[in-house]
């Protein structure tokens, strides 16, 4: 059994909402929210597929994740339980990303409203929208939260019952600032393959389970995707079974302490510098903790003597010696960056994440 797959312009929230509702109930085609014109897209998908989301491709080639209505609604139910009840949402994220779709699905599932700015996210307009339409919840990426905290008028944010922040690691300084102001922040972890955030402040929600296999984070639960569209090989690599239970093998490394999951980096962000393994995520965390460097990005570059070394890319000038001293004191001498590259602006994806492929290309050039 199959069903039609329909492309819907993700810049049209009304169209996406109507198409999504029909897809979830089974009354309409499966939905592929997309900005632009996709290529090599099939006309139909399995009957159980309701939504297809293309990943951002921040560190690899994009993948098209096929999600069932059951997975999306399971994720929404888990979120509502963790939040303590239903409520209206403010949509701040693009609808071709799972976090944006999640906001709409959660509102639909609880028969609540999702307040939308059809012109996209703008910090000042977002605050004004919260003032006109009081809601209980919103979901942001760290870059959006940072822009909001730069504004003078924060009362509408303080009235929110919960602000979910995900999509990438939140800088320590930003989290501290938000808590200092009295915002109710929850850090979420997940991906398109898990119907969005399924681990909140390190704790799995709903029937989500987390485990580590050789240091790699694996997640299980009813929110898992069907797989990757027309890509059985990638699906088989990413979705595995242990003792009769299906798990999604993430690309993240982590630690589990007393049931609390801490994501420490990515499997592919570990380099070998002078024969020593170095986590770029750990280096980046130290650099982002330095004054004015909360938006810095750390990538790898080849080195004639050490093989590979970290490079700091930032919009704010900083002395290399200062960066090297900070990193050495926390991560070790092998992890010290070989260069600091100052750019006019760091390339970003529409999701608010740094475009690491473009940044690495800039460093190579």
What is the name of the CATH topology of the largest domain? Rossmann fold
Approximately how much beta-strand content do the residues carry? 25-35%
**How many domains make up the 3D coordinates?**
2
CATH class of the largest domain: Alpha Beta
Rg, rounded, reads 21 Å
Stretches with pLDDT under 50, minimum 5 residues? none
CATH superfamily of the largest domain: ANL, N-terminal domain
> How far do the termini sit from each other?
50 Å
Mean pLDDT: 93
CATH architecture label of the largest domain:
3-Layer(aba) Sandwich
Coarse structural class: alpha/beta
Assembly context of the chains: single chain
- Share of residues in helices: 25-40%
| Main sheet makeup | 7 strands, mixed
* Global morphology: globular
Q: Going across the major beta sheet, what is the strand order?
A: 7-6-8-9-10-11-12
Number of strands: 23
Number of helices: 11
Helices and strands, with pairings:
Layout: E1 2-9, H1 13-25, E2 30-34, E3 44-46, E4 49-54, E5 64-68, H2 69-83, E6 89-91, H3 98-109, E7 114-116, H4 123-132, E8 137-140, H5 142-149, H6 155-158, E9 162-165, H7 172-181, E10 185-191, E11 196-200, E12 203-204, E13 209-213, E14 216-220, E15 227-228, H8 232-238, E16 239-242, E17 245-257, E18 260-266, E19 270-273, E20 276-279, H9 280-288, E21 297-303, E22 307-314, H10 320-330, E23 339-342, H11 356-364
Parallel strand pairs: 1-2, 6-7, 6-8, 8-9, 9-10, 22-23
Antiparallel strand pairs: 1-3, 4-5, 5-15, 10-11, 11-12, 13-14, 14-17, 16-17, 17-18, 19-20, 21-22
Helix pairs in contact: 2-3
């Amino acid at each position: 059994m199959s069903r039609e797959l329909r492309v819907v312009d993700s810049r049209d929230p009304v169209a996406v909402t109507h198409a999504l509702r029909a897809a979830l109930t089974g009354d309409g085609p499966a939905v592929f929210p997309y900005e632009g014109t996709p290529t090599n897209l099939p006309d139909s998908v399995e009957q159980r597929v309701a939504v297809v989301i293309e990943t951002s491709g921040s560190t690899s080639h994009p993948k098209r994740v096929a999600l069932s209505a059951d997975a999306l609604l399971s994720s929404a139910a888990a979120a509502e339980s963790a939040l303590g009840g239903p409520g209206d949402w403010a949509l701040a994220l693009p609808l071709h990303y799972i976090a944006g779709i999640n906001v709409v699905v959660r509102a639909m599932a609880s028969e609540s409203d999702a307040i939308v700015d059809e012109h996209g996210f703008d910090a000042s307009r977002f605050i004004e929208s919260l003032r006109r339409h009081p809601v209980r919840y919103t979901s942001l990426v760290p870059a959006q939260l940072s822009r909001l905290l730069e504004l003078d008028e924060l009362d509408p944010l303080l009235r929110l019952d919960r602000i979910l922040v995900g999509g990438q690691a939140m800088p320590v300084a930003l989290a501290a600032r938000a808590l200092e102001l009295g915002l109710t922040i929850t850090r979420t972890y997940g991906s398109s393959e898990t119907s969005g955030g399924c681990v909140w402040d390190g704790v799995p929600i709903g029937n989500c389970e987390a485990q580590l296999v050789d240091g790699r984070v694996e997640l299980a639960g009813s929110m898992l995707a069907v797989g990757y569209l027309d890509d059985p090989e990638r699906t088989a690599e990413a979705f595995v079974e242990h003792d009769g239970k299906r798990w999604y093998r993430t690309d993240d490394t982590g630690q589990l302490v007393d049931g609390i999951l801490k994501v420490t980096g990515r499997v592919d962000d570990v380099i070998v510098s002078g024969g020593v393994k170095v986590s770029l995520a750990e280096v980046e965390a130290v650099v982002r903790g330095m004054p004015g460097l909360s938006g810095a990005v750390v990538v790898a570059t080849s080195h004639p003597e050490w093989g590979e070394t970290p490079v700091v890319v930032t919009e704010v000038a900083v002395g290399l010696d200062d960066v090297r001293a900070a990193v050495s004191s926390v991560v070790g001498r092998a992890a010290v960056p070989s260069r600091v590259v100052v750019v006019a602006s760091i390339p970003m994806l529409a999701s608010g994440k740094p475009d690491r492929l473009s940044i690495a290309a800039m460093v190579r050039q």
